[in-house]
């Protein structure tokens, strides 16, 4: 029953976010139509919406308003979508399939894909820079700073730069963890912390505990991604399976082996759970999401 309740909550948030994104993205009927259509193509109707789900789960800890959480979640999802559009381009990972459909540069063209990423990134910051009712200006400013840090040279973009440079290069486990803490983990951490900024103020100790949870679950997400890249097929993943191995990229599976990578994911999951002990039942959704992230099949 508990699992059914969580699935119902997750489905409701995913549908709510799809509706919010529909409204917050520019209309394809307005000029420049091709750019707007491609922005919607890259963002809508696909993806697990893990980052918005984390925003809403963290928002439950602070009694945040749903409309504010939807705007924060949409900003994060647009940053995530922009990163996927750029990562898939021929100058980077050169992939043709994303979320079960042709990648943006394949469906449109490279120039449009580049502009889609640029436009999604700036739209994301526009969303959280606009007044959010009930959220103090200082908290909004901290949201902007958190998202900028997570998506820039010290976060997602920096991690992608390390990833591109790592092809064919042996990495140690700490080096691999550092890369993924930036490339994948930084935006997942931002989702948790920004959701918690949308309501009442947490204590310094609570913020520290939430930060530990966010970092552990962000790293676990990437470890599971590496496992699925070996175990799942392209149809299930909605993207090209086995691509990292084919391109000689270091992964947790190539470094540790499959069984040890699974053990690492479980250890990170357990550490994430332990970090939430002080929150009691209020952290139920975050714990359920940690379960989902580690047990997912795509």
TrEMBL record:
* Any one GO cellular component localisation term in the record: cytoplasm
Instruction: Provide this UniProt record's keywords sorted from A to Z.
Output: Isoprene biosynthesis, Magnesium, Metal-binding, Transferase
Q: State the Gene Ontology terms under molecular function.
A: metal ion binding; prenyltransferase activity
Q: Which residues cross the membrane?
A: none
Q: Which domain of life is it from?
A: Bacteria
This protein's cofactor list reads: Mg(2+)
The keyword Transferase is annotated on this UniProt entry: yes
Output the GO biological process annotations, alphabetical, semicolon-separated. Answer: terpenoid biosynthetic process
InterPro entries per the record?
A: Isoprenoid_synthase_dom_sf (IPR008949), Polyprenyl_synt (IPR000092), Polyprenyl_synt_CS (IPR033749), Prenyl_diphosphate_synthase (IPR053378)
Q: Which family does it belong to?
A: Belongs to the FPP/GGPP synthase family.
Name of the featured protein: Geranyl transferase
Q: Which organism is it from?
A: Chromobacterium alticapitis
